[in-house]
Each structure stands twice: as structure tokens, then as C-alpha cells.
Amino acid sequence: MTRAWIWPILLVLCGSAVATGLTFSGSPSAAAAFLLVFVLLAGVNSPLIFPESIGEQEAQRRSAVDGRPVVFWRPGCMYCLRLRIRLGRSAHQLHWVDIWRDPAGAAAVRAVNDGNETVPTVVVAGKPHTNPDPEWVRERLSPSA
């Protein structure tokens, strides 16, 4: 779990250090703006922007019941972030698996991506798709979801 927070914490710490330097050099407004940018970047790269992550086995079970796609992702991945943002509210209809929190999820991703943890990997009807277009994923959502 701590692995998912390393990047956001580093962003906040670096932004704080630079903002402190700017404050001491007499630019408090620039320091505040700089810190705000780094805090926003940290928030976007944190697990908070994504729907609640579940385990790989639970996601596969739920997907078999309701037919919704399973998305394997990890914090800090810009392609995962792109998918999440472009899906908008539809993102909550998917089953999200954080591969940094779930070793079985990471193993499932490696199994379909030649041993690499390439994300986002979206599984639709049992077939994996690596880094698909967000519009394509949206089309695969069941109408009843």
C-alpha cells in the first residue's frame, strides 16, 4: 500500500522544499502557486482519484456476474489516469484492480503482457486489451450497468 503513495508524497515534499525556498527569497505568492501545482499533481497521481480497488479474483467474479470490464491499473501511470479521466462517471461502472496492492492482479497482467506489468490492461469478456482507447472501453460497458 505504501508503494502507491511514494510518488504523491515525493511530489508534495519537493513542492514544499521549493515553496519554502521561494518564501525565504521573498516570493510568497509564487511559493503558494508552486505548492498548489505540486499538491494537485500529487492528488492526480494518488490512488484517491480512482474508484475503490478490489482484488483480482473478486473483480473476475463480479465481472462474470455483471459482464462489466476489469481494469488493471497502478498509481502514477499516466495512461491509467488518461483512461480514468476520459471515462468520467462511467469509470465507476468498471472493476478496478490496483496491481501494486494485489499480487494476483500483477501476475494476471504479466501473464497477458509477455511478463511486463503494462497497464492499463482491460479485460472484456475474458479477453485482455492493453492500453485501449477510452471510448472503446466506454462502448463495452453493459447498458444495464
From TrEMBL:
Key words of the record: Membrane, Signal, Transmembrane, Transmembrane helix
Keyword hit for Secreted: no
Pfam family, one: Glutaredoxin
Annotated Glutaredoxin domain residues: 70-127
Bilayer-spanning residue ranges: 29-50
InterPro entries: Glutaredoxin, Thioredoxin-like_sf
Signal peptide span: 1-19
Protein name in the entry: Integral membrane protein
Organism from which the protein derives: Streptomyces bingchenggensis (strain BCW-1)
